[in-house]
Amino acid sequence: xxxxxxxxxxILALGLLSAAEIKLGKPLTVxxxxxxxxxLAHPDDYVGKTVQVKGKIVxxxxxxxxxxDLTNDAGQKLRIQVNDGEIDFPKDGAGKMAxxxxxxxxxxxxxxxxxxxxxxxxxxKGKTFDPASVPGPITVYQIQGSGAVILSN
Length: 153
Description:
Blueprint: H1 2-14, E1 22-25, H2 36-41, E2 50-60, E3 67-71, E4 77-81, E5 97-109, H3 111-125, E6 138-150
Parallel strand pairs: 4-6
Antiparallel strand pairs: 1-6, 2-3, 2-5, 3-4, 5-6
């Protein structure tokens, strides 16, 4: 058995075999991912609908793995949020590509709600928080994730 591990490790090191994709949550049902640019150009058209997107993971919640942010080549960013414990996005996922699916949501936050959200996010990231950095009421679009695939690079 040990010999098999050494052979497999050697094959992986040589790049002859890639690591498998990581499938999380429910299986994906939408046939093709939508470009982030299309979704974000007219977000209200997609609110309440099941959408699928593909992008590079730029950040993952380091507390519970309950969200990840995807970006495209133009720098547009979208958060994939899940309820605690439903899916645990890999905390070392930054830099990998992912396909994620779920219900596209819109939230209108008051200034107080926006401050509370920004404060919680700063705590999750271990950063200091200044309430004055939140300009006022904000609209947040995100995907309430049901499934995702972290692609092998």
